[in-house]
Specification:
By secondary structure, the protein is of the alpha/beta class. Helices cover about 45% and strands about 15% of the residues. It is built from 17 helices and 13 strands. Strands 3-2-1-4-5-6-7 form a seven-stranded parallel beta sheet, with helices on both faces. The protein has a six-stranded parallel beta sheet with strand order 10-9-8-11-12-13, sandwiched between helices. Strand 2, helix 2 and strand 3 form a beta-alpha-beta unit. The protein is globular. The mean pLDDT is about 95.
Amino acid sequence: MEILFLAHRAPFPPDRGDRIRSFNILSYLAARARVHLVAFVEEDGAIAPEHRARVDECILVRRTKSQVRAAAEALATGRPVSLTAFADCRIKTAVNDLLARRSIDAIYAFSGQMAQYLPGQFPRVIMDFVDLDSAKFAAYAADAHGPMRWMMQREARLLHAFERQVAGRVTASLFVSEPEAALLPGSLAVENGIDTLRYDPALVTPVPAAHPLIVFTGQMDYRPNVDAVAWFAERVMPLLPDAHFAIVGRAPTPRVRALAGPRVTVTGEVADVRSWLAAADVVVAPLHLARGIQNKVLEAMAMARPVVASPAAAEGIDHAGTLRVAVQPEDYAATIRELLARPEQADQLGTAARRQVIGRYGWDARLKPLDTLLGLGPA
């Protein structure tokens, strides 16, 4: 069997949320079929041989279009900015070429931006939206003002129409959680998993750090992460005068870097995020806007850390009571103080969280539905 895998961002290395999902799906498919990858990359660089070996053919296109140009094209054509930002004739040519010269049995499109490259008629197409982007932009619009509010509302409206049109012509539409799938009727949930062999606290040496240590991990130029750490540093940390907060993740924006101070560390990119998780007394995920299942939460749970998360970050995770949920700054502070004051109970909570992740979120178990959807044989 031969599968064409389309991705808005090359799936390797698996070092951020979307890549972790796409990498594990691609690896699962490649163990059962011949996979041809067509994807965007955002920077030049060699692909590690072990990653390149996973696919039969690998066509990567550097994405250079600016957001300003994408917005201008969107306004001129009546399309969503999210689509014009990823509109590129080189990808279209690569897809058409592969379909013409290979016996492709199925197409797996990862992220809604790649739906624009699907052929008009094809017998088996899986559209992995991951999250419902139209709902994300609707949430952005609710917090925006003036022209930006109008732009976000426009994006939500046009994307919603596009998502419904795509879902109506593919074999299956997938989302990362049941709540997300419920937003687009007829869709299915294929949840994220976690590599519990890699995320094993017994194999990791914690970084030297000030204690008590509270850790947040994530891509730090992603708006929900930026908003989350700014809110936590400004609203919660003043209520925890003895604690230290580490913001761990690549590409911190100026807003994030400005948070650094005597009790806040902004690391930028680190060699191994697991070492920071291993050092944490508490891991937090105070996201106000979160779509699907948060890898950062699963990773912290797998590392046997006590986690305090917002309702949005906890939604969709079957945690069986092994993570704590907080809403207001006072809730976060009280919950964190309790965990810090009772380290043995905090460790027990983290151990239970790891046990829950091992039993519930292994990647092979989470991706098993793809066998039926794609007609795959055993590995």
